[in-house]
Structure of cysteine desulfurase:
Amino acid sequence: MIFLDAAATTPVRREVLDAMWPYLTGGFGNPSSHHTLGESAASALAGARSAVAGALGCRQGEIVFTSGGTEADNLAVKGIALARQAANPQLDRVVISAVEHPAVEESARYLERFHGFTVDVVPVDAAGLVTPAALAGVLRPETALVSIMYANNEVGTVQPIAALAELAHAQGIPFHTDAVQAAGWLPLDTRELGVDAMSISGHKLGAPKGCGLLFVRSRTRLEPVIHGGGQERGRRSGTENVAGAVGLATALTMARDGQAEQQDRVAALRDGFIHQVLAGVPDAVLTGHPIHRLPSVASFCFPGTSGESVLLELERRGVVCSSGSACAAGSDAPSPVLTALGISAEVAQTAVRFSFDAAVTQEDLDAAAAAVQAAVAAVKNLGAGHGR
Ligand code: PLP
């Protein structure tokens, strides 16, 4: 099987599992316990926090471990907006982009439904980019928070985060970015990005599902969304997932150390794959930005097919990928991301996303490109047969 669905999830890396193992077995203590076992768990958690802070260029106290990307996005969007509104009730608007993951979009809609906020949506251009001019157009004195993702999970477009954050800051507005898809591929130094909050999920970069983190700059006020025993300095209650934090720290450190090399290698493979697919299926349309895109994502529409049928034909040929985001799979509605890029509903339902992990090879992608050509032809033939 050739697995080209790494944007949905990745297998746990051997080194990550090895680093986690002691905290799943003999060193299983609760970091809040005042005995040796607890203290050793607390020190593992502190070590993980310090490694993460090193990888993100921030202070240890600015890391909140969470159960994943969704929780980190919820905490950022709700937590920052509600804290700002509590300090100044006039701050009752949040800005998100038109291509956010549901974890951000639904958090913003929750603020609208239950806390009187208005959600302002910044449009994207046909390549999925939020331009600084478009963002400037929606910022208001009442804006409590801007949340714009670093890289899109369906089409791979990478946003100019530093420029967008600067624009928000010029008006005194904090800036959050969902870096779940960017982690492992793009620079994550929070000082260079200039963001106030950033979400990361473990399972997209070789750590297990169910662990993630939110970076929150120390001057940024945050209202917790999970209440309880006051762990994570009161910002996220619940017994910490020590092994998960250790695994996430290991995966992030490995990604940072190999990132530049990995990025160039995989970007070159991606470009070759895009070229082969467009040559093999002349009416295929590459979605997302031609240059500012994740090294790991090649996404297309194949007009005259159905994305779901192409996926089935690909799987029959040993290639596993997806029609877009894993969360939207199975839904009949056209992808809101593709719709925001101006793609018609008819074409949007022909979308297929190929996403790679760092281990992808030329042979995999050569075989996958040949399978794409055959799968699309098979679906078109079937369609023509039905039409007769
Ligand atoms: N944000 C983006 C951009 C994602 O792609 C995903 C997962 O697909 C998430 C957030 C949610 O992360 P998690 O699966 O860790 O909850």
In short: The longest helix spans residues 242-280.
